[in-house]
């Protein structure tokens, strides 16, 4: 037996009860007790992999397709087993056809199941601090436990901003700008992500007459950025690269979809991952993630589905997705949908179950 058997095309969510306990992960794929070994590997040339729980009650996604490059954990390889990403079945589509479309309330928010919601940020929620227009989008009062999101628009007299004790990822969707982080200037074009470490300050200036707007995700969740009289002379030179633009050469495929990590562990982020992705006209099969996520629709239209409801999405809308919430994002546009996501804890956006 030269290659492992594909036991399942989704990982197994397992709660490991006791720190230090050894678990034997099946590598051959033949076990009837997935994801654990039952001895079926005898004579195959495969041996189980031993993993010891790192803490009491540790939640892990153990790979069941046996194609992972990070055993015993899922790394999203199951998404590439077929030519197309797993879509909702005809039976699921028929069964959900009558689910209501939740309209937005007076604040632009459509609340779905489990605390998931779609919001259209409006100017009515904006206030001005330190020469910036700031619009809160996701906060603790909305049910977020691990991240918060703000839309930031600098004026001509904008001061530097900072957040103590949290990481920040910024995203410039349109226009061009100089983004200054701790005195280091980065020239950026559209659909570019930036990483700001705890305690560092940042500033943004448009390079044209067109105003710019930044999405700012803070993790761990906390208050909005605060203005500074002067830019602090703090920049972690161990991580000089703080900017990543969308680059087709750096795309990672998931069957007929792609994503590109803009800010992640390679840039030094310990808490949050930021990515950009594109999906064709389709409706994904319902699934879950072990992370809390903020998704901004950049182009395309469609629906966000949960168990008992759905909400329309369009460019500019933001989706808040709680950890483990069952959901499905549908694209109804012929040209596809592009989105930007940021989630906690940091990892791969390809991992789902």
In short:
By secondary structure, the protein is mostly beta strands. It has one helix spanning 90-95; strands at residues 12-16, 22-25, 49-52, 58-62, 109-111, 117-119, 127-129, 132-138, 148-154, 160-162, 167-172, 177-181, 184-188, 192-196, 201-206, 214-219, 226-228, 243-245, 252-254, 257-263, 273-279, 282-283, 292-299, 302-305, 310-313, 318-321, 328-331, 337-344.
Note down, in words, how this protein is organized.
The model has no long low-confidence stretch (mean pLDDT 96). The chain is mostly beta strands and 353 residues long. The protein is built from one helix and 28 strands. The strands form six sheets. An eight-stranded antiparallel beta sheet has the order 5-6-26-23-28-21-20-19, with no helix packed on it. The longest helix is centred in the N-terminal third of the chain and has 6 residues, at 90-95. The two termini are 27 Å apart. A hairpin with a 2-residue loop joins strand 7 (127-129) and strand 8 (132-138). Among the domains are: 1-81, no CATH class; 138-241, Jelly Rolls (Sandwich). The chain is globular and about 70 Å long.
